[in-house]
Amino acid sequence: MSEVRRLAERSKATARAISSLTEDEKNRALAAMADALEKNAAAILLANQNDVEVASSMLVSGEITPSTLDRLRLSEKKLREMARSIRSVKSLPDPVGRVLERTQLDDGLVLEKITCPLGVLVVIFEARPDAITQIASLAIKSANAVIMKPGREVEASAKVLVDTLRCALRQCGIAEDAFQLVLGREAAQELLSFSDLVDLVIPRGSRQLVEHIQANTRIPVMGHAEGICHVYVDAAADQEMALAIIDDAKTDYPAVCNAAETALVHEGIALEFLPKLAVRLRAKKVRLCGCERTREILGQDSTEPVDDWHQEYSDLILAIRVVHDVEEAIAHIHRYSSSHTETIVTNDDKVAARFLQQVDSAGVFHNASTRFADGFRYGFGAEVGISTSKLHARGPVGLEGLATYKYLLRGKGQTAGEYRETKQFKHRKLPL
Description:
This protein has 432 residues and is α/β, with parallel strands linked by helices. It folds into two domains: 3-223 and 389-406, Aldehyde Dehydrogenase, Chain A, domain 1 (3-Layer(aba) Sandwich), CATH 3.40.605.10; 229-372, 3-Layer(aba) Sandwich (Aldehyde Dehydrogenase, Chain A, domain 2), CATH 3.40.309. The chain is 42% helix and 20% strand. It has helices at 3-18, 23-39, 41-60, 66-72, 76-90, 130-141, 155-171, 185-191, 207-215, 239-251, 267-282, 292-298, 326-336, 349-358, 418-421; strands at residues 99-106, 109-117, 120-125, 145-150, 179-181, 200-204, 229-233, 260-266, 287-290, 304-305, 317-323, 341-345, 363-366, 385-387, 395-397, 403-410, 428-429. The strands form four sheets. The protein has a seven-stranded parallel sheet with strand order 10-9-11-8-7-12-13, with helices on both faces. A four-stranded antiparallel sheet has the order 16-2-1-17, with no helix packed on it. α3 (41-60) runs antiparallel to α7 and α10 packs across α11. The protein is globular, with a radius of gyration of 24 Å. The mean pLDDT is 94.
């Protein structure tokens, strides 16, 4: 038996053990995890500095992108935010053991639908060390064991972070195998074959990573391949509001999946609005690409053509298209979106309602930046990732997405055969 197999078996055994942790026990562990993160800040930042140095050479050789390097960097401020996120998860209601439905099938025969953990999670991620604390905090609160596989560029940070969190679990009397770390592509590939041990795989990274995982495992996969988000500026938009929203959606953190990649602008305001947008974004060093009408308005020399409307830039680059109306905007989104997050800027409530109803993405917003598509901002404490699937969980995935349910039936010796002849079901809904 391989070492990776033995590790996964320990995770499976630990998942069963921690499924019975009380809410107080889990909350004490989360408090200890946040404290340990702050106490070990110097060692974590030193390890991250080593990762950044290695990744900088990978950037020169073209192995990673500037956005990947940006996501990799930690700071004292970022560490404080990571600890705050753990404490935020601690404050959330326990997702395990909630009774969702209670039905009296017959006298003395009661059926309950109750939430429970998924079991063993495998999370494969690139670059972002803060993914470790988000994943670990949500996993312990939802009583799931988690195996984490980081990208090569973040391995040093990951080792120190996971060791720090495992130490916190030990101090609380919880099996440290609730958090495990594996390194290298071979280990990751082996994990993907353990459909008997792993309950869910969550990839966080590039489209290539997600598609590779989806094609190479029978285990359910939850995640998104791309973050191609759109902002549609309607003819009835408050233009200053639209400028602020696009600015935030593109420049606040361009490397993340909820950053806007395309702005769609109604032709009725394009001549007035686009020059103002160009001035604002170029002041922040955003490269503008556009359709032919956009380039006519802004100038062929200063605006590049769009090579591919499907492209996720993850950088200070924005594609712009002039559209005839909201219907054309919706059609463009349905053709090119990754079903992540789209927003409309308008003061016309009827147009907004049409957009919100007809756009089929995980997040559809009105007069708000796409950057709000985030587990912490939604009040989830943290997120293990964002799902564009329509099954099980969709959008930012927090505690509820890491729980499933089972049915508990309590009887007094009844047998099913009795209900074919002598007895009848009552099927009466009972209060929770």
